[in-house]
Amino acid sequence: MKAKLSTLSILVLSSFSAHSYAEQCGEFTIADMNWNSASLIAHVDQFILNEGLGCEADLIPGDSVPTGTSMIEKGQPDVAPEMWTNGIKEALDKGISEKRLRLAGKSLVNGGEEGFWVPDYLVEQYPEMKTIEGVAKHANLFEHPEDDEMFAFYGCPAGWTCQITAGHLFEALNLEEHKFEMIDPGSGAALAGTIAKAYERKKPWFGYYWSPTPVLGKYNMVKVDFESGTDIAEFQNCTTQPECENPQVTMYPSAPVYTLTTEEFAQREPTAYQYFESRGFTNQQMSELLAWMEDEQADAEEAMYYFFENYEDVWKSWVSQDIAMKVQNAL
Q1: What separation in angstroms does the CA of 90 have from each of 67, 189, 329?
Q2: For 214-261, what is each residue's pLDDT tens digit?
Q3: How many CB atoms lie within 10 A of CB 182?
Q4: Considering the chain, what is the average pLDDT of its residues?
Q5: What pLDDT shows up at residue 23?
Q6: Pairing state of beta strands 27-33 and 151-154?
Q7: Distance (Å, rounded) from C-alpha 8 to C-alpha 285?
Q8: DSSP state string for 213-258
Q9: What is each CA distance from 243 to 43, 102, 239, in whole angstroms?
Q10: Angle at 111 between CA 269 and CA 228, to 5 degrees
Q11: Which is it for strands 151-154 and 180-183: parallel, antiparallel or unpaired?
């Protein structure tokens, strides 16, 4: 009789425990943004939350400005896993101050990264090329594709915001005095192609690029130090402004990239919110994953399984051993 009661007690307690755990995490929506890194993060989040924490997270289509606006005005979706906050900073600041939104952890722990870059093999050969002074000293290495008397600096395609910033910094750094000419590559794909072509032939390359990207996941590039530090006021008030007449030298500030949630979600789902506070990718990790997606022509779901298999130490650091085991078993 005692054995039967003991067994019954275990079953009742187990049922109660499972029910309590399920109550800790309910139903909510995650924006599946329309670019690869954000979509990959959304799929990883959904799998860990549903299989590890017992949530019912659904993915819905999203995009930067529409999603942020909808979260402020309608409270939906509950979560945007990768929000580049500079793009809609004013609206987000207002939403946070009015207790409609909350910033959880950083999706990209380094922030979005911009700069002028050279290949690592050049820095190995000429260590001084870590700095802009060293690049200028060896300007003659950077062959211009069309002019034997000028040297090549690859800028942004026309119409992109980074064409403005790169142009102002090109001017502020007096690169024209060293016979550099800014080359418009014509498109983002063409700019990436110039890096790939140079790197695979171990040729010099100097220009603007950003991270995380597939290119910087495939090729080891070194960001050139302007030895100026970062002047955020200068960057916001002049470097980014088309009409700026006297640009000064500043490093690019990192672009904050956060997981954005509604305030209501943060209060209703504290367990899931705690996960978002701890989850984050480095730029190198994300660049490697984007490079794999590009090479394999993989979608976000396929990349999710690749991530779980090849980056165990990363995702297991975000959760407890118990949750990690649940996710592992589900995989």
Answers
A1: 15, 31, 43
A2: 999 999 999 999 999 999 999 989 998 999 999 999 999 998 999 999
A3: 18
A4: 92
A5: 54
A6: unpaired
A7: 48
A8: -HHHHHS-EEEPB-SS---HHHIIIIIT-TT-SS----PPPPBPEE
A9: 42, 34, 9
A10: 150
A11: parallel
Single-letter amino acid code for the residue at 166: A
Neighbour count for residue 298 (Cβ, 10 Å): 17
Question: Within a 10 A sphere around the Cβ of 11, how many other Cβ atoms?
Answer: 10
Structure tokens at 121: 């093999």
Cβ burial, residue 157 (10 Å; 0-12/13-18/19+):
middle
Which H helix or E strand runs over 106? strand 101-106
Distance of alpha carbon 264 from alpha carbon 75, whole angstroms = 8
CA-to-CA distance for 81 and 166, rounded, in angstroms?
Answer: 29
> pTM of the predicted model, to two decimals?
0.82
- 71 CB-contact burial (10 Å; exposed 0-12 / middle 13-18 / buried 19+): buried
Backbone φ, ψ for residue 126 (5° rounding)? -130, 85
Backbone angles phi, psi at 20, to 5 degrees: -65, -40
326 DSSP assignment: H
With DSSP H G I counted as helix, E B as strand and the rest as coil, what are the percentages for the chain, rounded to 5? 55, 20, 25
For residue 136, give the 3-state DSSP assignment.
Answer: helix
Q: Which amino acid is at 231?
A: D
Q: How far apart are CA 237 and CA 18, in angstroms?
A: 55
Instruction: With a cut of 90, say whether residue 22 has pLDDT above it.
Output: no
Which residues have a Cβ under 8 Å from the Cβ of 299 and sit 6 or more positions away?
A: 39, 293
Task: Report helix, strand or coil for 120.
Answer: helix
| Separation in Å, CA 328 to CA 285, 309, 316 | 20, 9, 10
pLDDT band at 304 (very low <50, low <70, confident <90, very high): very high
List of residues 6+ apart from 325 with CB closer than 8 A? none
Whose tokens are 């209060």? That residue is 267
With H, G, I as helix, E, B as strand and everything else as coil, classify residue 288. Answer: helix
Query: What strands, in cross-sheet order, belong to the sheet with 151-154?
Result: 180-183, 151-154, 207-211, 113-119, 221-223
